[in-house]
């Protein structure tokens, strides 16, 4: 009994020691309450504006535009997004004449976050700088790269003019804090080298305006719409599409000056012209936009198809009349069609020009 009591006493003592040290280890392993970065550094909180939205002026300096794609309805842009606002907490007195501003990193001072509304994927930001001037004015800039969706209106292709849009508003977290407005002096600009990088386009103007759009919680958010107006260089299509098609149509009319007795020559020219126009359409298909409506170049193709086919119909009608023994009527018909068909071709194309560009 004594041995048994001693063993029980030793076990009880060991259990008590284990509980004592185990409890301490548990207590030591319990993490301390997390402290937010805003609590440690109050400058990471937005400046107090007495219940009013903080006005933030923004501007966009476009460095490059590429991959303007009418088929996928998007384009790529690289530029500098510049913003200015006032933070009274950052007012300072220069310590020397050369101290024009002070530089902060983005993890030291609060700054608004920007969202490219029509971005296909979230935009990437690099080369971020923040400068604070003695009166508390903050100048923020970031190099932004974005792949943006855009609506192209191609009805007058290839003589079309387009508007590229860049829509920017604050992120959801800053929607009830920040009011974006375009910079008053120069809200939108494009570098001269952008003109050289666009082989098919010429930049004709830029603009910026603010719109009020509904937010997620029913509030309104100031959204800045930057627009870049561009015009297509159409010389390629004039020399590589319109002129060859026009020559093919004129070639089909040469059958009117061939002796009706030479049926084989007339049929050969007519059929060859039709097949050439069809083959030409397939050859340039990759250079034409694939849209669900007829563009001007589509209509021109259809008109050329129609008049080349009309030439073949006229050729058949003339030979049928000739076989019936109406040689006088055949001659008069050929003389009339020589004038009527080209005149109708010109008239139809003028009507299409008025419809599409009038």
Tell me the distance between the termini.
117 Å
Largest sheet features: 7 strands, mixed
Unreliable segments of 5+ consecutive residues = 21-30
CATH superfamily of the largest domain: Neurotransmitter-gated ion-channel ligand-binding domain
Range of helix content = 25-40%
SS-based class: alpha+beta
Q: Can you tell me the overall shape? A: rod-shaped
Word description of this protein:
This protein is of the alpha+beta class and 358 residues long. The protein has 3 domains: 1-30; 42-233, Acetylcholine Binding Protein, Chain: A; 236-357, Up-down Bundle (Methane Monooxygenase Hydroxylase, Chain G, domain 1), CATH 1.20.58.390. 38% of the residues lie in helices and 28% in strands. It contains 7 helices and 11 strands. The chain has helices at 2-29, 37-40, 192-197, 235-252, 263-283, 296-323, 327-357; strands at 54-69, 74-86, 102-104, 114-116, 124-132, 137-149, 161-170, 178-182, 188-190, 201-214, 220-232. Strands 1, 2, 3, 5, 6, 8 and 9 form a 7-stranded mixed β-sheet that branches. It has a 4-stranded antiparallel β-sheet with strand order 4-7-11-10, with no helix packed on it. Strand 10 and strand 11 form a beta hairpin. The longest helix has 31 residues, at 327-357. It is rod-shaped. It starts with a helix and ends with a helix. Residues 21-30 have low confidence and may be disordered.
């Amino acid at each position: 009994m004594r041995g048994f009591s001693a063993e029980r006493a030793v076990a009880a003592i060991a259990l008590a020691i284990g509980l004592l040290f185990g409890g301490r280890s548990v207590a030591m392993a319990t993490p301390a309450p997390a402290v937010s970065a805003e609590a440690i550094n109050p400058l990471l909180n937005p400046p107090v504006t007495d219940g009013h939205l903080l006005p933030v002026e923004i501007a966009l300096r476009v460095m490059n535009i590429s991959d303007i794609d009418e088929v996928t309805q998007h384009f790529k842009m690289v530029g500098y997004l510049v913003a200015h606002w006032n933070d009274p907490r950052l007012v300072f007195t220069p310590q020397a004449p050369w101290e024009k501003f002070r530089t902060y990193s983005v993890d030291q001072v609060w700054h608004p976050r920007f969202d490219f509304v029509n971005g296909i994927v979230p935009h990437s930001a690099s080369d971020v700088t923040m400068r604070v001037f003695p009166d508390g004015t903050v100048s923020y800039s970031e190099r932004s790269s974005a792949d943006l969706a855009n609506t192209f209106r191609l009805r007058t292709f290839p003589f079309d003019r387009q508007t590229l849009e860049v829509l920017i508003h604050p992120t959801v977290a800053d929607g009830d804090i920040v009011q974006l407005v375009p910079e008053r002096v120069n809200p939108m600009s494009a570098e001269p080298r952008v003109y050289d990088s666009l082989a098919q386009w010429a930049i004709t103007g830029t603009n910026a305006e603010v719109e009020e759009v509904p937010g997620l919680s029913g509030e309104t958010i100031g959204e800045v719409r930057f627009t870049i107006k561009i015009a297509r260089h159409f010389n390629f299509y004039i020399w590589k599409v319109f002129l060859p098609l026009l020559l093919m149509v004129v070639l089909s009319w040469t059958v009117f000056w061939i002796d009706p007795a030479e049926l084989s020559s007339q049929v050969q020219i007519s059929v060859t012209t039709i097949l050439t126009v069809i083959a030409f359409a397939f050859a340039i298909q990759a250079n034409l936009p694939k849209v669900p409506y007829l563009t001007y170049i589509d209509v021109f193709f259809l008109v050329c198809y129609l008049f080349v086919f009309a030439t073949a119909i006229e050729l058949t009608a003339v030979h049928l009349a000739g076989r019936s023994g109406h040689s006088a009527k055949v001659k008069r018909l050929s003389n009339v069609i020589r004038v009527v068909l080209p005149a109708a071709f010109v008239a139809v194309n003028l009507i299409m020009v008025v419809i599409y560009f009038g």
